[in-house]
Amino acid sequence: MAGSDLARLARRVRDTLDWHRRAVAAVLVGVGVLAGLSALRPHAPRTVSVWTAARDLSGGSPLNAGDVAIRRLVVADVPAHALTAGTHVVGRLLAAPMREGEPFTDVRLLEPSLLAAMDRRGLVGVPVRVADGAAAAALARSGDVVDVLGTSVTADGTDTAATVVAAGVTVLAVPQRDSGSSEDAGLVVVAVSPAQATALAAAADERLSIVLRH
Fold first, then answer.
1. CB neighbours (10 Å) of residue 171?
2. DSSP collapsed to 3 states, 5-64
3. Per-residue b or e along 124-157, where b marks 16 or more CB atoms closer than 10 Å to that residue's CB
4. At the N or C end, where does the chain have fewer CB atoms within 10 A?
């Protein structure tokens, strides 16, 4: 092979090697840029699946499948002791009203066995909003037996004499004590008969209070 042919061959080999080196260098630069962008990109926040209210709930009755929904929430936004997707919630008694989308926590729900344990059929759980909320929270505890009293305001602004709206009812829960939420102030969940539930509903416009029985 002539010297000129060898020289051309050497140049071709050198040019090929140079091209490959530039291509490899370009790829490495691209990989470095992508790695840098990935490091700068904030990581997606960690989420967890929890039970939430599927609609506004009034409380005082067992939950059905249409009342609840699973939602994935950012961990930082999940309240303490929230009930996760693996927890059984359908059929449990809701102790207090909830807004749509609000996560369920352990203090919001009571076990159906609380009603069954009283060995009286036909009882229902009813949330009662009492006027002396702070006093009621300090006075009543789960298992206590109370009378629910009602008074109304006359045209001249005076209160009528108190009447017994529901006598001898058992307290199931005092949500404010358990949750610490000001939204639950004055709320007491009681186990009542259907007739007592009707009487409490009819007295919704009255000022209600409770008296602890010994």
1. 21
2. HHHHHHHHHHHHHHHHHHHHHHHHHHHHHHHHHHHHCCCCCCEEEEEEECCCECCCCECC
3. bbbbbebeebeebbebbebebebbbbbbeeeeee
4. C
pLDDT one digit per residue (tens) for the chain, 214 residues? 455 655 565 566 565 655 566 666 666 666 666 666 666 566 778 889 999 999 998 776 678 889 999 999 988 888 888 899 888 888 887 777 788 999 988 777 776 556 555 556 678 888 888 887 677 767 788 778 899 999 887 766 667 788 899 999 988 877 765 545 555 557 888 888 889 989 998 888 888 888 888 6
Fold classification of 43-109 (topology level)? Type Iii Antifreeze Protein Isoform Hplc 12 (3.90.1210)
Structure tokens at 147: 């009378």
**What's the rounded Cα separation, in Å, for the pair 214 and 199?**
23
